[in-house]
Structures are given as structure tokens and as C-alpha cells.
Amino acid sequence: MDLIRRGVSEIIPEDELLKKLEKSYKEQKPLKIKLGCDPSRPDLHIGHSVVLRKLVQFQSLGHQAILIIGDFTGMIGDPSGRNVTRPALSLEETRKHGESYFEQASKILDKEKTKIVYNSQWLGKMSFEDVIKLASKYTVARMLERDDFTKRYKNGEPISVHEFLYPLAQAMDSVAIESDVELGGTDQKFNLLVGRDIQREFGIEPQVILTMPLLVGTDGIEKMSKSYGNYIGISDSPQDIFGKTLSISDSLIYTYYELATDISNSDLAKVKADLENPEVNPRNIKRALAKKLVEMYHSAEAAKEAEEEFDKIFIKKEIPDEIPLFEITNGQKEISILDLITTVNFAPSKGEARRLVQQGGVTLDGEKIADISAIVQLKPENILKVGKRKFIKIIVK
What we know:
Blueprint (H helix, E strand, L loop, with lengths): L1 H4 L4 E3 L1 H14 L4 E6 L8 H15 L3 E6 L21 H15 L8 E5 L1 H4 L4 H8 L4 H4 L3 H8 L6 H17 L3 E5 L3 H13 L6 E5 L25 H9 L6 H8 L4 H12 L5 H16 L2 H16 L9 E4 L5 E3 H7 L6 H9 L3 E3 L2 E2 L6 E3 L3 E6 L3 E7 L1
Parallel strand pairs: 2-3, 2-5, 3-4, 5-6, 7-13
Antiparallel strand pairs: 1-6, 8-11, 9-10, 9-12, 12-13
Helix pairs in contact: 9-10, 11-14, 11-15, 12-14, 14-15, 16-17
């Protein structure tokens, strides 16, 4: 229970989990631990890893991890935390994203011990009569208890009927596999509780709910999300993982250690003690965190190289040993700085390039470019730096 409780927001209800664990141990029968995956976001970051790591902990205790790829529910789109209807995806899109999800999740999960199922296997077989019977088991009043539905209803914003079906469809996943425990983020609490209710309706012992907090992103404000640009991707390069981790505020160090790493509880206690010790520089603890994350998703050697590269660029102010090349083959000798930034794909638009220049993050051959209308002279070889970590060598032919 010490391991299971680590970093958890809620266990609903905890006494039922204890009974399930005791029964599992007595009968030597592993519990079925369910995690539903949203295939609308195929790129995983360490925010997603929080609940995946909890699933790994159950695996380490000998229980059966079941990863449900929501290829069918992905066509509905879960509106949790949103105030607008999400666009539906095709079954082909959700399947493709689901495969990508599992491939990335395998960096965390024990692939051989994880059961993968697609919920189209049972949801796709339901008739309209089945859907009506399922819908009859839950009331509109109960559905409107969900926070985002409540807000949209009060604000007169549209709620499509099919959105009410999402929690019910997710609940049918719990019925289909007869899950004992379901994991999810705190934003999924309502959906997970619906699963308990619908399991009861089908005469199945209700699952225990275990919710995990949403990891705050590198900006220290919003939850980690690719759309906010405050994420650390589990498929990011060692250099990016290292650099992005060092950009987090000191107040997030402990949370990242607790939720995003696999260090032991005793080591976690030491991190907490060091952070509370005024004689210990939190920068050193953060560097250790950055190395740990790189080790987890790459290797110890990659972590060492990423640290050396970071020091070379940001402490010694040197250019990295290996940077990408970009060739300009028309012999062009001058170009506007905004065109140059977009040409090498360091910004998607001139508006974004203008913002980068205004922020003071653009240099050409070590010379800072502060004028958004600047026309720069190109030599046969040029080094363009945009932001803190983007370098490119431009060759003019």
C-alpha cells in the first residue's frame, strides 16, 4: 500500500482496495488493473507517464495490467476539461494513434506483461437496442453533475447527446474486462466513477478508482500539454529532455521526482530533505533529476553526454559538436532575418519569427539580431542560433 499510495490523489474507496488485495493474495489471483488510453493524442510526454508508472507499480506487485486503446471511444471524443465539443476521429485514425501510443508507452511498461485490447471489439458489436438499454441505466441529472457539462449547460453552450455516451462507453470497457481497479488522471474521476455504477448494473463487483494528479508543465502554471508548449516528450532527444527539465522551477523538483521517476521512496525522502536543506543548492538536485529522466528514456551514457553538451552550450557558451546542416543552393548572399528563420524551419511563420527576434533569442555567427527588419549578409558557412537550444549551420552554394 505504501507503493500504491505514492503520488496518488484519491483511492475510491481505499477499504475496498485493501479487501481486493487481500483476496488476490489469498487466492493467488492477480487483480485486473485497467488503464484506458485516449488515442486522439499520439505523442506522449512525461505528464502521461504519471499514470503509466502507477500501472507499472501494479505490474511489479504481480497484477495484470490491461491497456485499453479507445479506438471506438476516440470516435466520440472525451470532452473532459473542455468547453466545446471535440471533433470525432475515424476508426482508422484512432487505430493508428493507438499503435503509436503503445509503442511509446512500451518505454515505461513491461511490454510482455501488458495486455492490449481495443474497445471496438465490444463497443462496435453493440446494437442500437443495446445502446438504449445502456443509456437507461444512467440519468441526465447524474450526467450533469460532471463539472464541464455543468458549466456548459449554465453558460448556454451546446452539449451534444453523443457526449453523454462517452462515460457510458468507457464504463462498458470496465464491464467487458471486469476490471478490479481503474487508473486515471484527476480529470477522469467522473468517468471512472460511472464505470463503478455501470458494473453494479451488470452484476459485477465494482472497480476501485485510483486517480493521479495532473503534472504541471515546465512553465509552472498549466498542466503539461503539447498545446501549451510546456511539455517534456518521452521521445524527445536527450538534449531536449535535459534542457527542458532544467527549465522547471525549483518548486516543481520534488513533484517531478515523485510522479515522473521510478526512484525508491527512501531516495525520494532524501530528495525532500535536500530540498529543505539551505546548504544544498537546488540546482544540483535539478541536474540530477534531468540526468535521471534522460537515463529512463535513453541511457546513462546519453544522460552524461546531454549534461556535457548543456554545459558546453550554456556555461562555456560554445557551439555543439553536432548541429544540423541546411544548404542554400542559389548562391544567395543576403536575406531578411525573418525569411532566414522560416526558411530553415525554426519558425512556422514570419509572425513567430518576429516574436523570436523581439525576445532577443536570435544570433547569427554569435552576433545578436535585434532588428526584425534586419537584412543579414550570408557567408559560405553561417551558424544560426534561435532560442536556447536550436543551432543550424547554413551552407551557401
